[in-house]
Amino acid sequence: MRFDELFLKAMSNMGIKKCFGIIGGEAEAISFDKSFGVAFYLTRHEFAAGIMADVAGRLTGMPHMCWATFGPGLTNMATGVCSAMLDRSPMVACPAQIPRSQIRFNLTHQCIDNVALMSGITKSSLQLENAHALVSQVQTALLRALEGLPGPVYLSIPLDLLKTEVPDHAAMDILQTVKPLAQTKKAKPARADIIRATQYIADTKHPMIVIGNQVIRDNAQASVCRFAQQLNAPIICSLAAKGAMAAQICHSEARVIAFCGDGGFHSTSQDLETLARYSLPVVVVVLSDSAFGLIKYYQHLDRSEAESNLTEFGPVDFTLLAKANGVSAIKVLDITELQDTLEKAFQTHQPHLIEISVKYDYDLLQHIA
What we know:
This protein is an alpha/beta fold.
């Protein structure tokens, strides 16, 4: 059995069933055959692959894989891996490395020290050297992705190792040894701490609830909503409570909507085609003001006029962009039409983009933010 097949079958046995990414020069050495147990989702950019693995891990509580080629493929993916580290999402990032005989860091074409690069933004960063590492190192690394505060782990896989033949008996022994991952049970809080917290809440005059991604990991959304209703308290989501395209893959029956500013959206808009290719019925709402609106807000905090050359750009018709990528789209000119437009979009069971032109009153925002 070749190592690439053994690797994917071992990952499947450990519970890794989905991989997001782009294959590069290592295509000669790895085949994501469905029979190996890992479904591959091709993205348009490695950044999107990293974010999808991040969000999938956050929503399910179990690691998902992202794949990239060596050199720039890995550096493109690094932002998604870092997001998983900051958002406490279990993930396994598996970019390839050039053949070991050719490794000369920063000298050979597209050859960088992958392990060193990723060590600062992962819980574990290592390079596989042989088949037995699947038991001695990989399983340990994946368990580490789940223990304590979850996070990403990194596995560098040299191209020549992927092509290595592993004796069938040794491969079967490895596959029988690796075990499915399981989430560790969290300790229950002490009763005295619960009573103390209850008293603090009862004495609060104007309570406010701030939630993060732990609510998602513990599937406690409904409980938090009931708690907020009982207290008559508003809920504020931290940045780590966000989700995206992978949410639809993980929860195919759910209605998934993504609200984006045009500045941030256009940096990854190439993956509209990914939505269309996999027929993911995500509804994308783009708030368009032809600017990095949040950055303009920060500028207004310190001066009366923003520097437009630093924040503003030319207009883009996002409905045409969506249609060019195979996604149906519409512009909403009257905000009162948004609810009906959303419902019609969801009824299509296909990806859809809604563009809404916005104009922010930055002077007002300074007083309410």
